[in-house]
Design a protein that fits this description.
By secondary structure, the protein is α/β, with parallel strands linked by helices. 23% of the residues lie in helices and 24% in strands. The protein has a single domain, classed as 3-Layer(aba) Sandwich (Glutaredoxin).
Length: 184
């Protein structure tokens, strides 16, 4: 496991890069499919990373609190040929076992992760209703898999975004396993 902090490629105010990816519902999903929402939270994630596993409950809490207002999208960009736990079939199993209700998409070419500058899992990006980045970073302040969160960073920032309040810190790095890149 290579531990990484997220890095800045997209800056606050940048538009969300477009994508068209296959979801675990066997349907293609495009960024424009989510235009009717008041915002979009894209989380680069996977099935096997202990940092992601520790956040499944927080992901579900985000969905329960804001899933009717914003789109929440999980994207798995890991190389499943080297990490079979992250295969498309295992994405379906993980989503069912963990009760994920948001769209979970596979980025087989890894081009979407590269466009966003995603580095680790989880690596969340929050966009407003205009599709502009307002926050890139952590779900909460529990930075180790066995830590307990005392601050719900993403919940607070989504609340601010929906209330048109300023998010004080537009980048607060997430930490997790490195995205498992394919050999070129």
């Amino acid at each position: 496991m290579v531990l990484l902090e997220s890095q800045v490629k997209l800056k606050a105010g940048d538009n969300a890069p477009d994508f068209e990816l296959l979801g675990i519902d066997n349907q293609k999903h495009k960024l424009s499919d989510y235009n009717e929402q008041q915002g979009i939270l894209i989380i680069f994630m996977c099935n096997h990373c202990p940092y992601v596993k520790a956040k499944f409950e927080a992901f579900n809490e985000l969905y329960e609190k804001y899933g009717d207002k914003i789109a929440i999208i999980g994207i798995n960009s890991n190389d499943a040929s080297d990490y079979p736990e992250d295969s498309f079939e295992n994405m379906k199993k993980t989503a069912q076992e963990k009760g994920l209700k948001f769209d979970y998409l596979v980025d087989e070419t890894q081009q979407v992760a590269k466009k966003y500058g995603a580095m680790c899992t989880p690596d969340p990006f929050l966009f407003n209703k205009e599709g502009r980045l307002v926050f890139h970073g952590r779900i909460d302040n529990a930075m180790k898999p066995d830590a307990t969160a005392t601050e719900k960073t993403m919940i607070n920032n989504i609340g601010k975004m929906l209330s048109n309040e300023k998010i004080e810190k537009d980048f607060d790095p997430s930490i997790g396993c490195s995205i498992k890149w394919k050999e070129n």
